[in-house]
Design brief:
The structure holds two protein chains of two kinds.
Chain A: H1 6-21, H2 27-55, E1 62-72, E2 75-83, H3 85-108, H4 115-134, H5 138-156, H6 163-194, H7 199-209, H8 215-231, H9 240-243, H10 249-258, H11 263-270, H12 272-276, H13 279-300, H14 306-326, H15 330-357, H16 375-389, H17 395-409, H18 413-438, H19 446-450, H20 457-472, H21 486-504, H22 513-540, H23 544-551, H24 553-560, H25 565-612, H26 619-638
Antiparallel strand pairs in A: 1-2
Chain B: H1 9-25, H2 32-56, E1 65-73, E2 78-84, H3 89-105, H4 114-133, H5 137-158, H6 163-196, H7 203-206, H8 213-230, H9 239-246, H10 249-274, H11 276-303, H12 307-327, H13 331-362, H14 373-376, H15 378-391, H16 398-413, H17 415-440, H18 457-475, H19 478-481, H20 485-495, H21 497-505, H22 509-515, H23 520-526
Antiparallel strand pairs in B: 1-2
The chains are: A mainly alpha, B mainly alpha.
Chain lengths: 640, 529
C-alpha cells in the first residue's frame, strides 16, 4: 500500500503522454496507452483488495502524507492518500468500469479526428477521480473534485465546433461552481472549527466537540451538501446533467453516470460522522434525494432522446443514493452507487451502440425493431434495464430495495411511499425506452436500416462484461440471509461510528423479517406494474400514447419541457445577471465613476481657463499690479 | 544584515537595464533586430543576475538583506539605502522575469521607433526594481515617479487609437495620488525630527515612530489614495481599462504584471507598519472596498466585448483579492495576498500575451471577430485554456493557492466579507469560460480566421516559462511561500501583536451566536417524521 500514489499516477502519465505527444502517435497506440494505464491502476487496486481477502483478515486502513502541499500560518495541507474499505471500493469501481469504457471508446471513437485528445482527457479524468476518492483531506478531495469538473467540461464540449456542446460544457462548469462555492465555504468552516482538514482528525474530533444538532456542524454539513447537489445533479442544480449528454456517449457513461456524478454521494458518505451529528442536514439529504428521484423520473417518462431518458434516470437514481444516505443507511447508498455504476454504464454504452449503428440517430421516434439486427446490444441492454428496474436477481433489485427498506424501517413512510412510486415510474420509462428502440416496427429510413450492423468487438465485449456485473453485482449484499451482507461487513469499519451515533438518537426498530419480505414483494410488484403499463402503451396499443398526450396536453407539455425549469433559470437568473453586468459597466463604470474622474479634469480645465485671463500680456496691467502689491506690502510692514 | 555577496547586487540589478539603454543608443536606427536582441539580452542578463537573490536569501530572518546604505544628499539626511526582505524578494524576481518575456513578446508588433521603445522598456525595468528595493523615502519616491515616464511614452507613442487620452489619464491620475503621498512623506519627516531630534528619510526608522492616532489617520489617508489609485482599488480603477486597451502588448504585460503590484507593495511597506492604528481602524472600510472590487470587477468583465478590456477588468477583481487578504491582517491572508500578487503577474501577464498573439494575427480585440480558433490553433487553444483556468483559480494551478489562503484569511477576519468574496470564484468562471467559448470554440465564421497560424517558436519561448511557474506554484508552492514566512510574521507583529493573535487563534463563537437563531433541532423534528 506504500505506493498508493501509483493508482492516480498511472492514468495521469497516460494523460501526459497522450496530451503531449498524442498527435504524433498512431491511433492504436493512443488507445492502448490509455487503456493500459487504467488496467494497471485496476490491477493494483485489485491486489490491495484481494490480499487481505485471501489471508482472511479485514482490510487495514492505510494513510500516508507524501509531501506538504500548502503551508501557511496555521494551515497545513498535505498531499496525502487514504485507503480504507470505502475508498478502495470506489477505486475499484472507477478503474474497473473506467477500463471497460476506455476499451469501448477505442471502437466508438475510431474515426474521430480528436482521438488522442479524447483519450488524454479521459485519462486525466480518471486521475482526478482517483485523487478525489483517495484524498485523505478535504482540500485534496476538492482538487480532485474540481479536476473531474474540468474534465467533464472538456469532454462535454469535446466536439467544440458544435455550439450546443460547448454551451453545455460551460453550463456544467458554472453550475458546478455554484455547488463548489458551498463546498469551499464548508472547507473554511471546517478548518476554522477543527484547525485541520484531515478526515480522520475531523471525524474523530467532531463527536467530542459537539453534541448532536450543533449549529456549527449543521452549517458545515449543509454547505457540503450544496457542493454535493451541484456535482451529483440534485434539485435544484440538476440542470447541467441532461445537457451534458452533448458529449460523446462513452463520456456520458463514465463521467455522467458511473463515476463523477456519484462523487457527491461519496463525499456525504465520507462525512457520515458529521451528518450523523446533524440530523437536520441528514433529513434534508433524504428529502432532496427523494424529491429528485421522483421529479427526474417524471421528466424521463416523456423524453424522446434516448440519452436524455437515461440522463434523467441517472439524476433520479442519484436521488435514491442520497435518500439512502439521508435515512442513515450509508452502506445502502454506496451499494446502490456501485450497482448503478455497472448497469447505468452498461445502458449508456448500449445506447451508444444503437446510436453508432444508426449513424448518430438519437431520437426514439426514429428507432424501433432493432432487436434482430443488434442482438448482442439488445440482450445486454435488457440486462441493464432489468437491473435498473429492480427485478430479481439483477443487481439493482438488491441495492434499491435496501434503500427502500431502510427508509421504511428508519421511520420515514412518506419517503418510502414516494420512492416506491419512483420505482414504478423507473420501470415504466425504461421499458418504454426498450420497446421504442428494439421492439415494434422499424421507424428508421430504409437507407439507414440497410446499413445497421452490430458494433465491433471492442464495443461488445465491454457490454457483455458489464451485463454480467449488472446481474451478479448485487449478490454481495443479500437481504434476509445470514452472512449475506458481505458488502456491509466490508464497509462496516467506515460507517461504524456514524451508525453508532445515529442509533443513539433513535428508538429501537421492531420491524421484522416478514415486513422486509413483504415490502420486497411490494417493490417487485411496482416494477412489474410499470413494465406492464409500458407494454400496454407501447407494444399492445401503440396509438394510445398519442391519445393520452392529447387528452392531457398541458400535463404532457409540462413534462416534455422539463417543467420549464431551464427557461425559468434563463429568465430569472442568467438574463438579469447579464443585464446587471451590462448596466454596471455602461451605467455605473463609464458614466458615474469614470464620469467623475473626467469631470475633475474638466473642472480643472475650466478653472484654469478663468485664471488664465489674469495673464493679459499688457505691460501696464502688470506694472499697476506690481505697484499695488508693493503698496500693500509697505502698509502691512508699517502697520505692524 | 550584511550583504551576503560582498557586492552591491541590488544596484547592479537595478542599473543593468540602463547599461543596455546606453548600448542601444549606440546602435544605428536601421538595425532593428540588433536593437531587439541587445534589449532582450540585457533583460535576460538582468534576470540571471537577480536569480542569486533567491538562492542566497536567508528565509529565517525578517531583516533586510543585500543591504546597501551610503549617504546621498547629506544636508537633508537622504541616503542611498537599498535592501530586500521576504516581501519584496519575489516581486523583484517577478519584475526581472516578466521584463525579459515582455520584450520578447513585442518583437514583431512594434516596428517603428524600435530604439525608443526598447529603451523605454528597459528604463521602466530600472524604475520598477528600484521601487521594490528602495528603503529611503526620497529614493523610493524618485523611482516611483521615474516609472511613470517610460510607461507614459509606451502608451502614448506605441499605443492604440486613443493612446494620448489613455496616456494622459494614466499619468495625471497616478501622479495626483503620488503628490499626496509626497506631502505625507514630508510631514512624517518633520514629525520624526520633532520626536527624535534627528532628520531621516529611512523608511525602517519610521516603523518605531508610534504616531498619535488622529495624525496616523490623515497620513494613512494620504498614502491610501496614492496606493489605491495605483492598485487600482474600486472606485479608483477607471484609468486601468483605458491604459490596458491602448497599451501595446509588452506595456500591458508590465502594467498588469508589475505596476499594479506597486500599490499593494506600498501598503505593505508603508501603511501597515508605520500606521498600525489607522490600519486597524480602516480595516473594515478597506475590506469592504476590496470585496466590492472583487464582485464589481468580475461583473463588469462579464459585459465586455473587447478581450483586452475583459482581462483589464478582471485585474480589478483579482487585485481586490490581494487587498482583501492583506487587510485581513492575519498570516493566511497576508501570505495569500503576497503569493497572489505573483500569481496575478503570471496569469494576467500571460493572458495579455495571449491577447497580443491574437491581435498580431487579426488586428482586432473584439470577441465577436473570433470563434472556432481552436480548429486552426490547437496548441494555442491548449495554453490559452490553461492560463484561463489558472486565472479562475482551478486547483493544481497557481491561482487556487493564493485565493484559498486569501479566503481563509478573510473568513477569519470577517465571515460576511469572506462569503461574498467567494462568490467571485463563480463569476470568474463565468466571464473567462464565456469569453473562451466565444473566441475558441464553435465554427469559424470569419474567413480571415480560416488560415491563422498556430504559435511560433518565439511565442512558445515567452509563454511556456510562465506556464511552467503557473503549474509549479499550483503543485508545489513551498519554495515560494517559505521566503515570506519571517517577514510576514514580523509585519503582523509590528501592526499589532494583540490583533494578530486574536485573529489567528479565534474560535468561531460568532457562528454559534448567528446560527443559534435558527433552531435546527426544531426543524429536524418537524421534518419527515
Amino acid at each position: 500500500m506504500e505506493n498508493a500514489w501509483l493508482i492516480p499516477a498511472f492514468p495521469f502519465t497516460g494523460f501526459l503522454i497522450n496530451g503531449l505527444f498524442g498527435d504524433r502517435l498512431k491511433r492504436i497506440f493512443s488507445g492502448c496507452i490509455a487503456c493500459t494505464a487504467m488496467a494497471l491502476s485496476f490491477t493494483y487496486a485489485l491486489a490491495l483488495f484481494i490480499r487481505p481477502l485471501l489471508a482472511d483478515v479485514p482490510l487495514e486502513a492505510f494513510e500516508r502524507d507524501y509531501f506538504t502541499w500548502i503551508e501557511a500560518g496555521t494551515l497545513k495541507v498535505a498531499f496525502g492518500l487514504l485507503i480504507d474499505p470505502l475508498s478502495l471500493l470506489m477505486v475499484l469501481v472507477v478503474t474497473g468500469v473506467g477500463f471497460l469504457i476506455h476499451v469501448y471508446s477505442i471502437g466508438y471513437m475510431h474515426d474521430d479526428p480528436g482521438f488522442s485528445r479524447y483519450f488524454a482527457y479521459l485519462n486525466l479524468f480518471a486521475a482526478a477521480m482517483l485523487l478525489l476518492v483517495l484524498a485523505n483531506n478535504f482540500l485534496l478531495l476538492f482538487v480532485g473534485w474540481e479536476g473531474v469538473g474540468l474534465c467533464s467540461y472538456l469532454l462535454i464540449g469535446f466536439w467544440y465546433e458544435k455550439q450546443s456542446a460547448t454551451d453545455a460544457g460551460k453550463k456544467a462548469f458554472i453550475v458546478n461552481r455554484i455547488g463548489d462555492f458551498g463546498f469551499l465555504l464548508a472547507i473554511f468552516l471546517i478548518f476554522w472549527t477543527f484547525g485541520s482538514l484531515d478526515f480522520q482528525v475531523v471525524m474523530a474530533a467532531a463527536p467530542d466537540l459537539f453534541p448532536a444538532g450543533a449549529p456549527t456542524l449543521t452549517a458545515i454539513t449543509l454547505l457540503l451538501f450544496l457542493g454535493a447537489i451541484g456535482k451529483s445533479a440534485q434539485l435544484p442544480l440538476y440542470v447541467w446533467l441532461p445537457d451534458a449528454m452533448e458529449g460523446p456517449t462513452p463520456v456520458s457513461a463514465l463521467i455522467h453516470a458511473a463515476t463523477m456524478v456519484t462523487a457527491g454521494v461519496y463525499m456525504v458518505a465520507r462525512c457520515s460522522v458529521l451528518y450523523a451529528l446533524a440530523p437536520f442536514a441528514l433529513g434534508l439529504v433524504a428529502a432532496v434525494g427523494c424529491a429528485t428521484a421522483v421529479y427526474a423520473a417524471t421528466i424521463g417518462l416523456v423524453q424522446n432522446d434516448i440519452k436524455r431518458v437515461l440522463a434523467y434516470s441517472t439524476v433520479s437514481q442519484l436521488g435514491y443514493m442520497f435518500l439512502g444516505c439521508g435515512v442513515g443507511a450509508f452502506v445502502a447508498g454506496i451499494f446502490h452507487l456501485m450497482t448503478h455504476a455497472f448497469f447505468k454504464a452498461l445502458l449508456f454504452l448500449g445506447s451508444g451502440s444503437v446510436i453508432h449503428a444508426l449513424h448518430g440517430e438519437q431520437d426514439l421516434r426514429r428507432m424501433g425493431g432493432l432487436r434482430a439486427r443488434l442482438p448482442l446490444t439488445y440482450w445486454t441492454f435488457m440486462a441493464g434495464t432489468l437491473a435498473l428496474c429492480g427485478i430479481v436477481p439483477f443487481a439493482g433489485f438488491f441495492s434499491k430495495d435496501e434503500i427502500l427498506w431502510e427508509a421504511f424501517a428508519g421511520g420515514h413512510p412518506l419517503l418510502y411511499g414516494l420512492a416506491l412510486f419512483g420505482a414504478l415510474l423507473t420501470a415504466f420509462y425504461m421499458f418504454r425506452l426498450v420497446f421504442l428502440t428494439f421492439h415494434g416496427t422499424p421507424r428508421a429510413g430504409a437507407e439507414t436500416l440497410a446499413k445497421v450492423h452490430e458494433s465491433p468487438r471492442t464495443m461488445t465485449i465491454p457490454l457483455m462484461a458489464l451485463a454480467v456485473l449488472a446481474l451478479v453485482g448485487g449478490w454481495v449484499q443479500v437481504p434476509l440471509v445470514a452472512a449475506g451482507k458481505r458488502l456491509g461487513a466490508f464497509l462496516a469499519p467506515v460507517f461504524e461510528k456514524a451508525e453508532h451515533l445515529l442509533a443513539a438518537g433513535r428508538p429501537l426498530q421492531h420491524a421484522g423479517a416478514w415486513q422486509e419480505g413483504l415490502l420486497m414483494g411490494l417493490s417487485l410488484a411496482a416494477a412489474i406494474a410499470g413494465i406492464a403499463f409500458a407494454y400496454r402503451l407501447y407494444l399492445a396499443r401503440p396509438q394510445l400514447p398519442n391519445r393520452i398526450a392529447e387528452r392531457f396536453g398541458a400535463c404532457y407539455r409540462l413534462l416534455l419541457n422539463k417543467y420549464y425549469v431551464d427557461e425559468f433559470y434563463q429568465s430569472a437568473l442568467v438574463e438579469p445577471l447579464r443585464r446587471l453586468a451590462e448596466g454596471l459597466w455602461r451605467g455605473i463604470d463609464v458614466r458615474v465613476i469614470d464620469g467623475a474622474v473626467n469631470g475633475c479634469a474638466q473642472l480643472a480645465i475650466a478653472l484654469s481657463g478663468r485664471l488664465r485671463r489674469l495673464q493679459t500680456g499688457y505691460v501696464h496691467h502688470y506694472a499697476w499690479t506690481v505697484v499695488a502689491g508693493a503698496c500693500g506690502f509697505f502698509i502691512y510692514i508699517l502697520s505692524r | 544584515m550584511m550583504n551576503a555577496l560582498n557586492l552591491p547586487i541590488l544596484s547592479l540589478i537595478t542599473y543593468l537595464p540602463l547599461v543596455g539603454i546606453v548600448a542601444i543608443c549606440l546602435i544605428n536606427n536601421s538595425r532593428q533586430d540588433l536593437i531587439r536582441w541587445v534589449a532582450f539580452g540585457t533583460s535576460v542578463v538582468t534576470f540571471l543576475v537577480s536569480l542569486p537573490l533567491y538562492f542566497m536569501f536567508d528565509c529565517g530572518t525578517w531583516e533586510m538583506q543585500f543591504v546597501e546604505d551610503v549617504p546621498w544628499i547629506s544636508q537633508f539626511a537622504v541616503r542611498y539605502h537599498m535592501g530586500i526582505d521576504g516581501i519584496s524578494l519575489l516581486l523583484v524576481l517577478l519584475t526581472t522575469f516578466l521584463s525579459a518575456l515582455a520584450i520578447l513578446s513585442t518583437w514583431t508588433a512594434v516596428t517603428e521607433r524600435v530604439k525608443g521603445y526598447m529603451a523605454s522598456l528597459l528604463f521602466l525595468e530600472t524604475g520598477m526594481i528600484g521601487v521594490f528595493c528602495a528603503l529611503d523615502f526620497v529614493l523610493f519616491y524618485v523611482f516611483w515617479e521615474v516609472m511613470l515616464i517610460p510607461m507614459y511614452f509606451i502608451i502614448g507613442i506605441w499605443g492604440g487609437p486613443r493612446r494620448i487620452y489613455a496616456a494622459v489619464k494614466f499619468f495625471i491620475y497616478t501622479m495626483s495620488g503620488s503628490v499626496l503621498m509626497l506631502v505625507a512623506i514630508l510631514v512624517l519627516y518633520f514629525m520624526n525630527f520633532e520626536a527624535t531630534g534627528t532628520y531621516t528619510f529611512d523608511i525602517l526608522d519610521y516603523y518605531n515612530l508610534g504616531l498619535p492616532g488622529n495624525i496616523q489617520m490623515w497620513l494613512f489617508l494620504a498614502f491610501f489614495v496614492a496606493f489605491a489609485i495605483k492598485v487600482p482599488m474600486f472606485p479608483f480603477h477607471t484609468w486601468l481599462p483605458d491604459a490596458h486597451v491602448e497599451a501595446p502588448t509588452a506595456g500591458s504585460v508590465i502594467l498588469a504584471g508589475v505596476l499594479l503590484k506597486m500599490g499593494i507593495y506600498g501598503f505593505l511597506r508603508f501603511c501597515l507598519p508605520i500606521f498600525p492604528q489607522a490600519t486597524i481602524d480602516f480595516m473594515p472600510i478597506v475590506l469592504a472596498l476590496s470585496v466590492v472590487g472583487i464582485i464589481y470587477g468580475a461583473m463588469v468583465s462579464i459585459a465586455q466585448d473587447d478581450i483586452k478590456k475583459l482581462v483589464a477588468y478582471s485585474s480589478v477583481s483579482h487585485l481586490g483579492y490581494c487587498m482583501l487578504g492583506m487587510f485581513a491582517l492575519n498570516v493566511d491572508g497576508l501570505k495569500g495576498s503576497l503569493i497572489q500578487m505573483i500569481n496575478h503577474g503570471l496569469s494576467t501577464g500571460a493572458l495579455f500575451m495571449i491577447v497580443g498573439m491574437l491581435y498580431e494575427r487579426r488586428h482586432t480585440r473584439l470577441i465577436s471577430e473570433y470563434g472556432g480558433i481552436m480548429k486552426v490553433m490547437p496548441m494555442f487553444a491548449a495554453l490559452f485554456l490553461l492560463v484561463a483556468l489558472s486565472s479562475m483559480g482551478v486547483p493544481g494551478l497557481n491561482g487556487f493557492v493564493g485565493e484559498l489562503l486569501i479566503l481563509i484569511g478573510a473568513f477569519k477576519a470577517s465571515l460576511a466579507f469572506g462569503m461574498v468574496a467567494t462568490i467571485g470564484l463563480i463569476l470568474g468562471a463565468i466571464y473567462l469560460l464565456w469569453m473562451y467559448r466565444r473566441v475558441m470554440y464553435g465554427q469559424i465564421t470569419k474567413a480571415e480566421n480560416q488560415n491563422l497560424k498556430d504559435m511560433t517558436g518565439r511565442e512558445y519561448a515567452y509563454l511556456l516559462p510562465i506556464v511552467l511557474f503557473i503549474v509549479w506554484i499550483g503543485v508545489y508552492p513551498k519554495p515560494f511561500l517559505k521566503t515570506m514566512d519571517a517577514s510576514v510574521d514580523h509585519l503582523l507583529e509590528t501592526v499589532n501583536p494583540r490583533t494578530s493573535a486574536r485573529m489567528d487563534g479565534a474560535k468561531p463563537t460568532w457562528l454559534n451566536d448567528v446560527v443559534a437563531r435558527v433552531d435546527f433541532q426544531q426543524l429536524a423534528k418537524g421534518q419527515g417524521r
